């Protein structure tokens, strides 16, 4: 199959309603090539194709679950085949208790894949029984009963960081507005309010730091360039020491007044810097749209 020995292969499975879609989206944000509901018998061939591309994929995530019907029974054989070729995927099994799953189905008004045959509770019990064999093979089991989407995302960051062969950090770059409060989960906070403010330029005020005009205004400033130069040098010193200490996930928050312009542009700019160091990077803009409903962001 000739996959890079450092390739990270993640197979996401588990109970319907336990958070598999959210897990796949999280891995997609981390740069994984993601495929949902792939028939298990195709997994070996799919990985072979990923290895043979002009730019071979080194981070691949697949969701395989009961929706595959009779094809799901092929999963054990597919896992045995790829393991015989030296590929040891991270098998991530998500589950939750029955009360939580029932509540989630009622809230979303979605149908359980097996509910056309039986009631929702019986369908959950049936699915749990059918998945027991793959649960026994799981690398990691996550009970999402008491986890918010944010909690699950952080849990997944830690799991991926522990199992990836490339010992780098998972970095969340979080832009925010100071007038909307400090982020509670930030490891490092940097204040960008001293930089030139697009809020006072009429044609830039309604835009965000994602717009090229705003990004250029902020990043072309000599003061911004000096700030980024000092900040990246500080990171060059800091990050290897975090890794040495065993830290796997780092949240770096960049704040401006309203979280719409300067902090967004800076966070986006830092993304390419951290990726050039081979860290996994996720960018979140907490307050970028608050100005639309909660007063003008700055």
- Fraction of residues in β-strands: 15-25%
**Assigned CATH class of the largest domain:** Alpha Beta
Strand order across the largest sheet = 2-3-1-4-5
Structural class: alpha/beta
Q: Helix-strand pattern, N to C?
A: EHEHEHEHHHEHEEHHEHEH
Q: Tell me roughly what share of residues is in helical segments.
A: 40-55%
Write down the CATH topology of the largest domain.
Rossmann fold
Number of strands: 9
Mean pLDDT: 88
Count of the domains: 2
- The total count of helices amounts to 11
Provide the CATH superfamily of the largest domain. P-loop containing nucleotide triphosphate hydrolases
Largest sheet: 5 strands, parallel
What is the level-2 CATH architecture name of the largest domain?
3-Layer(aba) Sandwich
Low-confidence stretches: 292-298
* Approximate shape: globular
Give the C-alpha Rg. 22 Å
Distance between the termini: 52 Å
Topology:
Blueprint: E1 8-14, H1 20-29, E2 33-36, H2 43-52, E3 59-63, H3 75-84, E4 90-95, H4 98-108, H5 120-130, H6 132-137, E5 140-143, H7 149-163, E6 170-177, E7 188-191, H8 212-219, H9 222-244, E8 249-256, H10 262-276, E9 280-285, H11 290-293
Parallel strand pairs: 1-3, 1-4, 2-3, 4-5, 6-8, 6-9, 7-8
Give a verbal description of the structure:
The protein is of the alpha/beta class and 298 residues long. It has 2 domains: 8-163, P-loop containing nucleotide triphosphate hydrolases (Rossmann fold), CATH 3.40.50; 170-293, no CATH class. 41% of the residues lie in helices and 17% in strands. β2 (33-36), α2 and β3 form a beta-alpha-beta unit. The radius of gyration is 22 Å and the shape is globular.
């Amino acid at each position: 199959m000739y996959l890079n020995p450092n390739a990270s292969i993640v197979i996401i499975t588990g109970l319907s309603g336990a958070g598999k879609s959210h897990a796949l989206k999280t891995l997609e944000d981390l740069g994984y090539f993601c495929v949902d509901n792939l028939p298990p018998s195709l997994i070996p061939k799919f990985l072979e194709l990923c290895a043979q591309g002009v730019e071979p994929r080194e981070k691949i995530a697949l969701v395989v679950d009961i929706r595959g019907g009779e094809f799901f029974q092929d999963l054990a054989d597919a896992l045995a085949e790829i393991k015989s070729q030296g590929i040891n995927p991270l098998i991530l099994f998500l589950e939750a208790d029955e009360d939580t799953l029932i509540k989630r189905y009622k809230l979303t008004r979605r149908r359980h894949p097996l509910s056309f045959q039986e009631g929702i509770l019986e369908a959950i019990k049936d699915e749990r029984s059918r998945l027991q064999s793959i649960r026994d093979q799981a690398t990691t089991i996550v009970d999402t009963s008491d986890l918010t989407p944010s909690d699950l995302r952080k849990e997944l960051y830690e799991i991926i960081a522990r199992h990836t062969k490339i010992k780098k950090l998972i970095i969340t770059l979080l832009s925010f507005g100071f007038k909307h409060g400090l982020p509670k989960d930030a490891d490092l906070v940097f204040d960008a309010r001293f930089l030139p403010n697009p809020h006072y330029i009429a044609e830039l005020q309604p835009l965000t730091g994602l717009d090229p005009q705003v990004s250029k205004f902020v990043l072309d400033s000599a003061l911004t360039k000096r700030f980024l130069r000092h900040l990246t040098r500080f990171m060059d010193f800091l990050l290897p020491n975090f890794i040495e200490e065993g830290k796997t996930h780092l949240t770096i928050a960049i704040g401006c007044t309203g979280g719409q312009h300067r902090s967004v542009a800076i966070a986006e700019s830092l993304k390419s810097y951290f990726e050039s160091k081979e860290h996994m990077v996720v960018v979140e803009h907490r307050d970028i749209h608050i100005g639309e409903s909660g007063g003008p962001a700055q």
